[in-house]
Amino acid sequence: MVNRVITISRRYAVSLLAVGKKSVPLAVFVIYIGFVTFALFNYRSHCLFTEPTTLIKYHLLEQEEADKLCRIPWDSLGVEDVDIFHDHDLTSIKHQNPLVQKGGVGKPEGCLSYQKVAIIVPYRNRYFHLKLLLSRLHPMLRKQKIHYKIFVIEQATNDSFNRGKLMNVGFKEALKEEQYDCFVFHDVDMIPENNKNLYICDDHARHLSSAIDEMRYHVMYYNYAGGVIAMKKDVFKVINGYANSYWGWGNEDDDLSARIQEAGYLLTRPPEHIGRYKMVRHKKESRSENGYERFLGWRGRWLQDGLHSPKTMTYKVLSKSQEPLYTNITVNLLYDKNKEINVAEDTTKESLWCFKHPHTYFFNQIIKFVRIDQSRSDSLSLIY
């Protein structure tokens, strides 16, 4: 009797195993179709991956003007081994970059840069990070033959850190010195790895940090615009810059992304193998109070809260100094609770889910098989 039960159990197990083997391919197929379907719904036509080589358009210029411009040595540009754990000395950095002028100015020799670029770095109490960034940016930008200046905009008070407003201050103060063509808004903890990631602007908003090590070298979500982003002067003015009302960490970059989309601009990115960054580890700032609620009401206030806002765009320059490797502008952002945006009065609420659409590493790998090549003269390639 016992042997008969064992025999029946074995037969039953074999039958289940056979059915299971037949079901595996079907299950994989169903999962794959599910991911593809989600990718189609998650598709954002305003987010494009473009090669850095498409940014420079010599053919649109007069021959005499084009002949004066620098040619980018693409073949000699590659990935650098970036060390984010060892400290740097400013004297050593200056010695390694002898051609950098006082104030953090770099210029190519024997030719003209395609654009004149201002690097805006919001800053407070991140000296270790700043030295790492300077040690990396100066040699990289020289190799890219860019005329640039680095502005470090330092928040002086102990109020919650306001990244967006510091970016706006940097934009305004830089334009008081010179008419820059392009502005790169750069977090101090983001260290670029690939010299091919060209620090110039296109006609839209170029999100340079498309692959960060903390995010497994993938875009966290399609509309993500944090880290490092470049915009021409006119584009930044049209979108009214960053919002000034995010005191604390988070959501100001989502607000910026929404403004970019609403103004009709694309969010372009270098391919992930080029837009690679290492994030220097640090303790996070305190979270922005009512940050998510404030962001969900962005549409009702984006034209009143930003670069052109007389109510929220108030600040006082406390000092300005031309350091050997950068220009430091220390400011008081004049926090005034009475001038804060009242979240309760915002009547236009967005869906956070529709904006973000986070995805996992596995999801990223599967949807990379889906590629739409557009037949456009600037060789735009849309990659999921």
3D structure, described in words:
The protein has 384 residues and is of the alpha/beta class. It has ten helices and 15 strands. The protein has helices at 2-42, 63-68, 90-96, 127-143, 163-177, 233-238, 252-262, 291-296, 352-356, 361-367, and strands spanning 47-49, 105-106, 116-123, 147-155, 182-186, 190-192, 205-207, 211-212, 228-232, 267-269, 276-279, 316-322, 327-332, 371-373, 381-383. Strands 1, 2, 3, 4, 5, 7, 9, 10, 12 and 13 form a ten-stranded mixed β-sheet that branches. The longest helix is centred in the first third of the chain and has 41 residues, at 2-42. The chain starts with a helix and ends with a strand.
User: Over all CA atoms, what is the radius of gyration?
Assistant: 25 Å
User: Helicity level, as a percent range?
Assistant: 25-40%
Q: Roughly what fraction of the amino acids lie in strands?
A: 15-25%
**Major sheet attributes:** 10 strands, mixed
Shape: globular
Mean pLDDT: 83
Write the layout of secondary structure elements.
Elements: H1 2-42, E1 47-49, H2 63-68, H3 90-96, E2 105-106, E3 116-123, H4 127-143, E4 147-155, H5 163-177, E5 182-186, E6 190-192, E7 205-207, E8 211-212, E9 228-232, H6 233-238, H7 252-262, E10 267-269, E11 276-279, H8 291-296, E12 316-322, E13 327-332, H9 352-356, H10 361-367, E14 371-373, E15 381-383
Parallel strand pairs: 1-10, 3-4, 3-5, 4-13, 7-10, 8-11
Antiparallel strand pairs: 2-4, 5-9, 6-11, 7-9, 12-13, 14-15
